[in-house]
Design brief:
Elements lengths: L1 E5 L3 H14 L1 H20 L4 E2 L2 E2 L3 E3 L5 E7 L4 E6 L3 E5 L4 H9 L3 H9 L5
Antiparallel strand pairs: 1-7, 2-3, 4-5, 5-6, 6-7
Helix pairs in contact: 1-2, 2-3, 3-4
């Protein structure tokens, strides 16, 4: 786990996520029906959900602990931005763990149980 400090791109990323979500409503609904909650969340954030994995992109999350996360399947790297503004990187994180975070009802509980202390 590496602390990379506050994410200066966070405001721009949030604006882009909102814009993509507003434009892609029909595609999101179709993906949610076909691919479940994880696909819906990924598409809302403007991230292509592929059979082989997930492309890079920041996913904003409703949580009192984290603002959002970005997953890089090529590196199996999960970058998490906490509400404090600090960004931590975890690796090697399998895609299933990232999707688990997206689908978790409590992002903080999932982070504590399945990510923090489990991955470096």
């Amino acid at each position: 786990m590496a602390d990379t400090g506050p994410n200066p791109m966070q405001p721009a990323a949030n604006a882009a996520i909102q814009a993509v979500g507003a434009v892609a409503g029909v595609a999101i609904e179709a993906a949610a029906a076909a691919g479940g909650e994880a696909a819906r969340l990924l598409l809302e954030a403007g991230i292509d959900y592929l059979a082989e994995g997930v492309t890079t992109g920041f996913v904003a999350m409703a949580s009192s602990m984290i603002l959002g996360a970005e997953y890089r399947p090529d590196l199996e790297e999960l970058s998490v931005t906490f509400v404090s503004g600090r960004v931590y990187q975890y690796f090697p994180v399998p895609l299933e763990a990232f999707i688990g975070l997206l689908e978790a009802p409590s992002k903080g509980r999932y982070m504590r149980a399945a990510i923090i202390g489990v991955y470096g």
